[in-house]
């Protein structure tokens, strides 16, 4: 992975050379609408997409462009609650319509770039990756990894948990491994995870208790290490990382992964953490083969 | 060395490009995100790689809270989706819940077949197969399997919304602050979202579901 990271930097630098940054003037929303109203060819991303798979051809540029053709301003919940009922209704209608407006625009853009874009996608999917991430709105997997439609199979739940009794995630893993034959499975957590924080809080959270119990169990498994960290934020960050490692281990414990790996040499399971501070992914460098061997001492389901 | 040598390189390279460009565009973007999230929409969609919600809605990180599973199912006994809904509706207080199905859905196709999908997927898709059984007549009238898959996906969206309506936090949010539920279908061949009409109601609200 270290090699691939180095490679990533080199590649990025080559691509970055031609990048013309967007004007960051005015408000975010304004610079977005500017970008939307004056579509400019994005040389750098064009170079990039040429080098990547044919699939990423058409949306790479638009994906990397900031855009938000919002006509209305986003109100905070507190602000909205102070509005008269008819204003609330209007606001809700607008925030609803916004998605459809944006979607129409996006679809038209893709079609303009490549008339076959959607018919190609319609023919089927063969993603290389399965992403198991958090539901948190700030981590749209495809956007932060620069991938486009058709490239990544995605499951997102509270705190990216993988529990053997959860039919939901197990169906996803099963389908991705046995039917789509994905090559990589990524469990991706993030610092500042609300789910992990809630699990560290001594409070009855009702319906969320059983789900978040899994994170408390991760704490218990690593109690000595975590208790040794005095700084609260450092402890919280470490729990986020350990949670990812444990969930990746849970993926490796499944029959689907063990059997597919024994037969074909894939998928490989990875544990990553996304940081809001710099927007970068951190590889926890899980030793997949080592973990697999370790896990199979007890959880061997290959025969 | 080919630039597509390792699929993981693509992700890390893509991520670096993303982080770099985002900071160039708005130096405070990430520091703002790290303060917290206040998305207005909870999206319950399919895990299918062709339906990345944030991309196809032309939105940005921080805009949509997301749960994606096989065939965008919400089952009454599923703790995962129930937890997502609880967190999004009771704690984050989203204003809209969108259930999005899509055309050529592998889950819908599988549910239309009688093939053994293995115990896990058989169990997960059982409710979708039940929908197929209940709506056998209308499904059979359709011209081909693709149309049947779309219709089954639509039925499944309605069914998920029915389950969501019974979630205690959703019930409360509907009466207390006007939360609304929306069923949509994403047409992969066209790249477009289509609102489903409200079921069992002559008042066509184009999917804008309202309890009143």
TrEMBL record, chain A:
Reversible hydration of carbon dioxide. Its cofactor is Zn(2+). Pfam families: Pro_CA. The keyword Lyase applies. Belongs to the beta-class carbonic anhydrase family. CDD domains: beta_CA_cladeA. Its EC number is 4.2.1.1. Keywords: Lyase, Metal-binding, Zinc. Zn(2+) binds at residues 134, 136, 190, 193. Binds 1 zinc ion per subunit. SMART domains: Pro_CA. This is Carbonic anhydrase. The keyword Amino-acid biosynthesis does not apply. It comes from the Eukaryota. It comes from Periconia digitata. Signal peptide: none annotated.
TrEMBL record, chain B:
Its cofactor is Zn(2+). Coiled coil: none annotated. Reversible hydration of carbon dioxide. Binds 1 zinc ion per subunit. GO terms for cellular component: cytoplasm. It comes from Periconia digitata. Belongs to the beta-class carbonic anhydrase family. GO terms for molecular function: carbonate dehydratase activity; zinc ion binding. Keywords: Lyase, Metal-binding, Zinc. PROSITE patterns: PROK_CO2_ANHYDRASE_2. Its EC number is 4.2.1.1. This is Carbonic anhydrase. CDD domains: beta_CA_cladeA. It catalyses: hydrogencarbonate + H(+) = CO2 + H2O. SMART domains: Pro_CA. GO terms for biological process: carbon utilization; cellular response to carbon dioxide; cellular response to oxidative stress. It comes from the Eukaryota.
């Amino acid at each position: 992975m270290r090699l691939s990271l180095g490679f990533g930097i080199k590649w990025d630098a080559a691509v970055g050379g031609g990048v013309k940054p967007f004007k960051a003037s005015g408000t975010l929303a304004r610079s977005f609408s500017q970008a939307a109203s004056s579509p400019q060819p994005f040389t750098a991303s064009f170079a990039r997409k040429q080098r990547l798979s044919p699939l990423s051809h058409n949306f790479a540029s638009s994906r990397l462009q900031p855009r938000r053709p919002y006509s209305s301003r986003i109100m905070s919940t507190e602000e909205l609650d102070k509005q008269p009922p008819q204003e609330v209704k209007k606001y809700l209608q607008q925030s609803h319509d916004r998605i459809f407006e944006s979607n129409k625009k996006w679809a038209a853009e893709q079609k303009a770039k490549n008339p076959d874009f959607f018919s190609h996608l319609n023919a089927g999917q063969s993603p290389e990756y399965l992403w198991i991430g958090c539901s948190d709105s700030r981590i749209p997997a495809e956007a932060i990894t620069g991938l486009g439609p058709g490239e990544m199979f995605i499951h997102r739940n509270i705190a990216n948990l993988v529990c053997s009794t959860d039919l939901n995630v197990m169906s996803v893993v099963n389908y991705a491994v046995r039917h789509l034959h994905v090559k990589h499975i990524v469990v991706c957590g993030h610092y500042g995870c609300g789910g992990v924080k809630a699990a560290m809080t001594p409070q009855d959270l009702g319906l969320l208790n059983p789900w978040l119990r899994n994170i408390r169990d991760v704490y218990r498994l690593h109690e000595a290490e975590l208790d040794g960290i005095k700084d609260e934020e450092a402890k919280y960050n470490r729990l986020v990382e350990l949670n990812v490692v444990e969930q990746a281990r849970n993926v490796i414990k499944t029959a689907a992964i063990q059997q597919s790996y024994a037969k074909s040499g894939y998928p490989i399971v990875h544990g990553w953490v996304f940081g809001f501070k710099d927007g970068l992914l951190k590889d926890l460098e899980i030793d997949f083969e080592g973990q697999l061997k370790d896990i199979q001492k007890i959880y061997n389901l290959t025969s | 060395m080919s630039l597509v040598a390792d699929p993981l390189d693509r992700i890390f390279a893509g991520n670096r490009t993303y982080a770099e460009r985002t900071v160039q565009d708005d130096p405070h973007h990430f520091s703002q995100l790290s303060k917290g999230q206040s998305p207005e929409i909870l999206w319950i969609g399919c895990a299918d790689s062709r339906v990345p919600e944030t991309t196809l809605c032309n939105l940005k990180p921080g805009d949509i809270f997301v749960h994606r599973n096989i065939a965008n199912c919400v089952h009454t006994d599923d703790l995962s989706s129930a937890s997502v809904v609880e967190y999004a509706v009771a704690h984050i207080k989203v204003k809209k819940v969108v259930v999005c199905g899509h055309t050529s859905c592998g889950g819908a196709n599988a549910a239309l077949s009688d093939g053994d999908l293995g115990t896990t997927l058989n169990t997960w898709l059982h409710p979708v197969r039940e929908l197929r059984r209940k709506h056998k007549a209308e499904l059979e009238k359709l011209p081909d399997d693709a149309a049947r898959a779309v219709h089954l996906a639509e039925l499944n969206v309605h069914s998920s919304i029915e389950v969501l309506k019974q979630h205690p936090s959703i019930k409360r949010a509907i009466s207390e602050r006007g939360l609304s539920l929306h069923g949509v279908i994403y047409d992969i061949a066209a790249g477009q979202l289509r609102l489903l009409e409200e079921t069992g109601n002559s008042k066509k609200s184009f999917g804008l579901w309202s309890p009143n």
